[in-house]
Design a protein that fits this description.
Layout lengths: L10 H12 L5 E10 L8 E11 L6 E11 L18 H23 L10 E5 L5 E5 L15 H25 L9 H4 L1 H18 L6 H12 L1 H8 L11 E3 L8 E5 L5 E6 L6 E3 L2 H10 L3 H26 L8 H10 L2 H9 L13 H5 L3 H11 L2 H17 L4
Helix pairs in contact: 2-3, 3-9, 5-6, 8-11, 11-14
Length: 410
């Protein structure tokens, strides 16, 4: 049952969570309603629930109410019994996210507020636990006016995101200088999601089949066959930490696309506040990882085509300004250093264009991302249709010569 709510997600659970948060051992939960949130556009590695909770504090006659978001591994839905796991298995996704929310993000938040005069742009953590189940409980920011968007962003809204990303990256460099602990984030998307790598290989295979039907594209077929054959090696190199002679490193969000963002917008649709969620695959490495993601998965196609260099310049200027304000010891990287990172990690542009861009054209009310990533015949038929979509075909045919010229297909 995809809409099932675990039996342990009950009044006792929320009482424990809120007692810890409110620092009131006599707090009483008087009512709780929990519902599953199902997003078919996202892989179901996590199960997300919304909770409306009413409670009373010690020595108070007033009833309080709050709305919360609960995040736990999707695997808990496979066993909805009352049994407590004897030995919970380690989940690297939740280990990373708990570490981020309890240690790294609070420190970054202080730098944002105190040094950069910047609002914190991640949700407030109410409670977390690793046993008997991994679980995180957050403020429900939809109750504060934040909402997801259904389309990628125009230039002005993209500028806001690139500015926030630059400050996040600069704060992470400063925190690493202080603690030498930020560089411990070494898992990343492709180490903890091997099924994702297989999905990418399948996507490249589908593109090869599609390109083979286009006149005068034989050279691209051979290029992509070579990429497919050496994909694991290329991914490892892409997500390797830069040595001091290679380049510079920051803490990357690791899955920096618009579906992991929530916004407050005015009547004209201009974003004036922003929240970034889902910190499960954060990784210490080249800033190009997040920046390239942002170009393709945050900015709209029109924005990318018309304002690519404007966005990169805006990111770089904001990063250097934050770097200097924070007082990072190392000299800020030059624009050449930044451009070099983008070129050296340019294969990520191809990976995103081939493995993620096609799904912009999918109606996720009719099919889930999990179904698309499966290996059944029905899934293969849908993927074949996606890669033959006229809009995607036009977009990828415009991009391939650029990737070839820059050496991203070598």
């Amino acid at each position: 049952n995809k809409m099932a709510v675990p039996k342990w997600l009950n009044r006792d659970f929320f009482e424990t969570a809120l007692r810890q948060y409110e620092k009131d051992e006599n707090l009483k939960v008087t009512d709780v309603e929990v519902k599953r949130i199902l997003d078919t556009s996202e892989p179901t590695t996590s199960a997300i629930f919304s909770a409306s909770v009413s409670y009373s504090l010690f020595n108070s006659t007033n009833e309080n109410s709050t709305k919360l978001i609960v995040k736990t591994p999707a695997s808990i839905l496979e066993d909805n019994s009352d049994a407590v796991p004897a030995e919970p298995s380690i989940d690297p996704l939740f280990e990373t996210e708990i570490e981020m929310y309890t240690k790294t993000l609070p420190a970054i938040g202080k730098y944002l507020l105190c040094s950069l005069d910047e609002r914190v742009f991640f949700p407030n953590l109410i409670y977390h636990s690793k046993s008997p189940n991994y679980v995180l409980v957050f403020d429900d920011i939809t109750d504060k006016g934040f909402a997801k968007v259904t389309n990628q962003l125009n230039f002005e809204n993209s500028k806001l995101i690139f500015s926030k990303l630059a400050k996040l990256h600069a704060c992470s460099m400063f925190l690493e200088q202080k603690t030498n602990e930020v560089s411990d984030y070494k898992q990343g998307l492709f180490r903890v999601r091997p099924d994702g790598v297989e999905h990418m290989l399948n996507s490249i295979s589908k593109l090869i089949d599609e390109i083979a039907t286009w006149p005068n594209h034989e050279n691209y077929v051979e290029k992509f066959k070579n990429i497919h054959e050496n994909f694991h090696r290329k991914i490892r190199r892409l997500y390797s930490v830069n040595t001091p002679t290679d380049g510079y490193n920051v803490l990357n969000h690791g899955d920096f696309h618009f579906r992991n963002m929530m916004f407050k917008t005015d009547k004209q649709g201009t974003a004036y506040d922003f929240m970034l969620v889902d910190y499960q695959v954060c990784i210490w490495g080249s800033p190009a990882l997040d920046v390239i993601y942002a170009l393709y998965m945050v900015a709209s196609k029109d924005t990318l085509e018309k304002h690519r260099e404007d966005l990169l310049t805006h990111y770089y200027d904001e990063f250097v300004a934050a770097h200097r304000t924070l007082g990072v010891k190392e000299k800020p990287p030059s624009r050449l250093d930044f451009n070099t990172e983008l070129i050296r990690h340019g294969i990520l542009e191809m990976i995103i264009a081939v493995c993620f861009m096609p799904y912009v054209h999918v109606d996720f009310s009719k099919v889930s991302i999990d179904d698309l990533m499966a290996n059944g015949e029905a899934s293969k038929d849908v993927r074949r249709e996606i890669y033959g979509h006229p809009d995607y075909k036009k977009a990828i045919q415009e991009l391939l010569p650029k990737y070839l010229e820059k050496g991203f297909l070598d």
